[in-house]
Design goal:
Structural class: mainly alpha
Radius of gyration: 15 Å
Strand content: under 5%
Largest sheet: none
Shape: globular
Number of helices: 4
Distance between the termini: 17 Å
Length: 91
């Protein structure tokens, strides 16, 4: 999870105008990995898919936090609380 969160921080800082597209692409990749899990024939392929899924999910989490802070500045507190509430509700 650390690798995905660190990578998305660097990528979002380097390409701030494409932040939404980057997070959307991460969401698509996480969904694709999740959809491919039932079709795995080996433990190695399953491990690779789960690793990629973990990278993209941590990127979505950290990228969403960065994006909310960038959009709302010092008034981002309630938005961050709502984001984490809905993460917890989904779990």
């Amino acid at each position: 999870m650390f690798i995905g969160a660190a990578a998305i921080g660097v990528i979002v800082d380097k390409y701030p105008k494409q932040s939404h597209a980057i997070i959307g692409g991460s969401l698509f990749c996480a969904g694709a990995c999740q959809a491919l899990i039932p079709y795995c024939n080996s433990v190695l392929v399953l491990g690779i898919l789960l690793f990629c899924r973990g990278l993209t999910l941590s990127a979505i989490d950290a990228g969403s936090n960065c994006l909310l802070i960038r959009l709302h500045g010092s008034k981002s507190g309630p938005w961050l609380q709502a984001l984490h509430f809905f993460f917890a509700l989904g779990c």
